[in-house]
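Entry for the shared binder. Reason: the reviewer on the internal report wants the predicted structure included alongside the sequence.
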Amino acid sequence: MALLDPPNIAESTTALRRRTTTVKPPDADAYSDNSSPSNNNNNENGNEQIRAAGEVVTNANGEKIEQKKKGVESQTSVLRYAYRPSSPAHRRIKESPLSSDAIFKQSHAGLFNLCIVVLVAVNSRLIIENLMKYGLLINSNFWFSSRSLRDWPLLMCCLSLLLFPLAAYIVEKLAWKKRILDPIVIALHVIITTAAILYPVFMILRFGSAVLSGVTLMLCACINWLKLTSFVHTSYDMRSLVNSTDKGEAESTSPNIELFYDVDFNSLVYFMVAPTLCYQRSYPRNAFIRKGWVLRQLIKLVIFTGFMGFIIEQYINPIVKNSRHPLKGDILYAIERVLKLSVPNLYVWLCMFYCFFHLWLNILAELLRFGDREFYKDWWNAQTIEEPVHKWIVRHLYFPCLRNGIPRGSAILIAFFMSAVFHELCIAVPCHIFKFWAFIGIMFQVPLVILTNYLQNKFQNSMVGNIIFWCIFSIFGQPMCVLLYYHDVMNQKVNNGK
């Protein structure tokens, strides 16, 4: 259809002049050989008319007046010379837009908009059909019940977690003043960090809290432990640099490290509330707080949190309750339940990622004027993980392992092992059951990474590994873990009731 579209008469004079004077097809010499002197004169006259479109005259008062007559003649000349039937329409080799060589060299914004429209239309129909068939299934007791009000020991435990950074600060303060020796400092920090993670575990198992309250406390405890470890490790490294006998070598090998001679309490307080897991004395800061922007993000946070709760209540809970243990019984039935659960589970996971890593961390960063907002990278391409955790692992686990002579493969395995342990703590402890499903799911990523790298090298295409990532992660991995933990918790309740 583009070949039938008329030319834009209102194009600028410069573009028209370029089109009529500089565009020369490959066989332009053949055209010029067959042309007569009259045609050349006509071309020159046409070019003069095009240039005349931009000329102006001045009256007695010095005002410029456009010559409309010459502009009309210029437009006629454009139609006569710029789009002649004899001019070649194919001048170079081109690929089709959807071919494998050109598909990633252009914008797909239109197709993306189409996918969004189709997703909204299809899911809106499914939501309406579900509401017409089952009604509104939201139950407030699922989120807030009388049992949640009895979880005040967990609330007190969460507030008391702030005592552990204070204790670490006191130890570091004494260490900087040479009041205690380094072996004692290390022993005290090991005790403090270990107690910071075991204390909430004991409280959850002791008081038998609700699952949601336990998950919240364990997330806060894990974040507190990671921040505490970063503060201790960074302070120890700074003391080692400052106390080194060869001070010049330390400064030359570490040009980006800020050497200081004391710990700062204000920087520690800011770090404990900042949206980062890596401690440093100062961070890039913004000049001011955008209050209107914060309000808009808060509204988005409320909307997406409500949408996530709606999916959980309306879709995931009925599917899970009407299922059987996936490792027991008919395997085809288990596959059907997993596939049916995969789509709503994926929506909940994406909403959870968007609410926490994008909305909440950006809101917190804006309120604290925290400048580095790269909280995640393109993990959807199966190349990176969440950026705050990734930075912590690289800074405090991966490279220390390499500096101590541990091979690269073993260092990666240690990083996955630690991630698996914390995932298991955040899920198994609140559920009061240790079946290691989360641990196995994280460690299963190690052979998956090896398989993905092998396929990418074999087919020279990253799309193969990305498809495997999405199939394992969203279709089989997450729904399978949800069903396994749900039925194990229900079986435990039945056994305890008996």
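Summary line for the report: The radius of gyration is 33 Å.
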